Amino acid sequence: MQEAVQRSDFDKFVAPTYSPAQLIPQRGQGSLVWDQNGRRYVDLAGGVAVTGLGHAHPELVATLREQSESLWHVGNVFTNEPVLALAKQLTESTFADRAFFANSGAEANEAALKLARKVAHDTGDAQRGKTEIVAFQQSFHGRTLFTVSVGGQSKYSEPFGPLPPGIKHLPFNDTQAALDGITEQTCAVIVELVQGESGVRPASAEFVDALRVRCSAVNALLIFDEVQTGVGRTGELFAYLGYGIEPDILTTAKALGNGFPIGAMLTSQALAEHLTAGSHGSTFGGNPLAAAVADKVLEIVRRPETLAGVKERHAICMQRLNEINARTSVFADIRGRGLLIGAELGQQFKGRSGKLVEHAYAAGVFTLMAGPDVLRLAPSLVIPLDVLNEGMDAMERAVVQFAATPE
Questions:
Q1: 228 assigned binding-site residue
Q2: Among 32, 198, 234, 249, which residue is least crowded by beta carbons within 10 Å?
Q3: CATH code at 236?
């Protein structure tokens, strides 16, 4: 019989790319999680905005079980029924005509960026110097060499140079800088509609509109990275729908599989035609298990009551956080869209979001950092209201304790 694993095994056997909490979650049901010691927590972290429908959702469990008893993997020398159903549902519910499937947000973004460069190559624009990719400071688009270079945080990219050339970073939410910086040499612009990893900073409507106008003027592709904001997280199926502005390419992952790894790039028929056979691919992308789960996730999230519920839960979170702040004065700003919420620490608490997360664990609730200065909440879209309020009660205890604890 194999010995029980413990937290110290991580330090012995796993590459130290993460510094996980000392507790090990063992079981989840809905928005509740139990650790190895049987302690119960309210999950307001959602696996970093992934488990949008909570843990062990009965419809997803049934779908995965049914598919696992049928067909696991055939490779892309064949297609399969679940991925065709998923592609149909994604394209029918968005601006897109075609979908490409991968295993993660980074891979979906890699595909989007490669497609932009491929379009420039095929049209002859690349030969005329139209190869520049514009991204934004403090953005995050993944961990591959290409996507980490496009991401606007040097701490993630500097150790891996030399980096791919032809990438420009502009200030986020600066409309004039975008209008000036997107030029005839720009082949694509990639932007998060809410910058997640750097502090939950929503893009303004004016900024997004300017990006669309300028990209159209210089014939650059506009890519919306909705890896974190997509699949209901903001209260719309995808965040772009709330802005009323369509991209040329959209990427999504995270909540699409509710924890089962899958990512997707969505685009138009005309652009997809540049991805000719063999030009790009993914061994596991769109495999039957992942596609079946994602198809069911999308069906559930598209239900009107699910999306309406996000808005209701957003209001509760904002009200409770503001009440907590009125009591403690810990936060300088509370912001976000739907159930992607950031609470920025005030000046005297700067740099201590990790400590606040630890206090939250002690109080019985899972939360997240969004950089050193921001607490992030990303709970399930369907978290029961009584569980949400229980979690916010625990959050209040954590903030009070944090405020009273010297650095």
A1: yes
A2: 32
A3: 3.40.640.10
Determine if residue 140 is labeled as part of a ligand binding site: yes
Does 66 fall in a domain? no
- Residue 80, phi then psi, degrees to nearest 5: -150, 160
Model pLDDT, residue 1: 53
Q: Any residues with CB less than 8 A from the CB of 159 and at least 6 apart, and which?
A: none
Domain stops at, among 266, 301, 336 = 301
- For residue 185, say whether it is annotated as part of any ligand binding site: no
Query: 35 and 138 share a domain?
Result: no
Number of domains within the chain: 2
Band the pLDDT of 155: cuts 50, 70, 90: confident
**Residue 3 included in any domain:** no
Residue 227 marked in a binding site: yes
| 161, pLDDT greater than 90 | no
Q: Is residue 343 part of an annotated ligand binding site?
A: no
Of 349, 360, 347, 351, the residue nearest 399 (C-alpha)? 360
Residues 294, 312, single domain; the answer is: no
Cα 64-66-68 angle, rounded to 5 deg: 65
Establish whether 225 is an annotated binding residue.
Answer: yes
Tens of pLDDT, residue by residue over 21-39, are 999 999 999 999 999 999 9
CB 121 within 8 A of CB 169: no
Domain boundary among 301, 318, 344: 301
Whether residues 240 and 130 share a domain: the answer is yes
- The tokens 């009591």 sit on which residue? 327
Backbone angles phi, psi at 220, to 5 degrees: -105, 150
* pLDDT, tens digit (0-9, with 9 covering 90-100), for 300-319: 999 999 999 999 999 999 99
Report H helices in 257-379: 269-272, 288-301, 304-328, 353-363
The domain of 351 spans 8-56+304-404
Q: Is 143 marked as a binding-site residue? A: yes
Name the nearest CA neighbour of 373 among 405, 333, 400, 338. 333
291 and 191 in a single domain? The answer is yes
**Residues in contact with 16: Cβ distance below 8 Å, sequence separation at least 6, in sequence order:** none
Q: Could you give the CA distance from residue 249 to residue 267 in angstroms, rounded to a whole number?
A: 5
